[in-house]
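Why does residue order matter? Because the sequence determines the fold. Keep that principle in mind as you read this record.
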Amino acid sequence: MIASTTYRPALLAAMTLALAGLAGFGAQAASPRTDDQTQLPQAPAKAASSPWFQPPAESSLPNNAFGALVRQGQAIFLNTKALAPQYVGNELACVNCHLDRGRKANSAPLWAAYTMYPAYRKKNDKVNSFAERMQGCFQFSMNGKAPAADSEVLNALTAYAYWLSTGAPVGQALPGRGFDEPMPPKGGYDIARGAKVYSAQCAICHGANGEGKKVGATQVFPPLWGKDSYNWGAGMHRINTAAGFIQHNMPLGKGETLSDQEAWDVAAFVNSHERPQDPRLVNHDIEATRKKFHEGDGVNLYGVMVDGVLLGQGVK
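Structure:
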């Protein structure tokens, strides 16, 4: 699940440029319309002296039917493809975007998301239930099929999110929700510079070609592009969203060590590669799809020429 993004206030005022028609990349201004995809209030900053919200310990789960459903939800969250293979079309799992079992602040924690729904989402132009929000994760981030709202899989995941949010205020944005995104660098982002950051900081886990890493049949580090990664409709395909996630959480265990510039550059590099097609493809037409779904959707490269190649063609 990729939660809605949040922005530092000055960022919203700076966004004016659409990406259409770019032909080749060096340093590019990062200044499109990057409005939030929801009407959720912005998550407040955390006071330095305040702790993050703390979800309950697993040891507190009761040994009854509810506890069993929560444990089932956690298992699906961690091993999504193995336990819900009919809904997953790539090598990703829920926990790849929501680190530490959905508990980590600034990694779209479930405890900060569950209590904010129902909420309007521009992405599908309707008020979404929490189950509908998770359906989008399966369709886009996991490039698969949305489970039915009353399916066993979504019931279990909902129970897990409900339990993690025990004690969280309903309808009140908590610090650490989503990915607080770094300011766009003044000089724009640079894909070539991002390639160097990737090689030095990311390739050891995610592979030189973004393929991720497996131990046996188990994917231990997720693929970042190519046929086994998120598709062009996923929120993470937005460079600004990926920059927020990366800066707070990557390299794994060393979050918040990259500069704003490095986070934007490496996010641009990752998202300058081909990936599965946007399942909302309009009449097999990339430009029509770009105009309908990607124009104004943050900073993204769908339908843009990069090094002479039109991105958005999709890979299988």
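Confidence is low (pLDDT under 50) at residues 1-26, 30-34.
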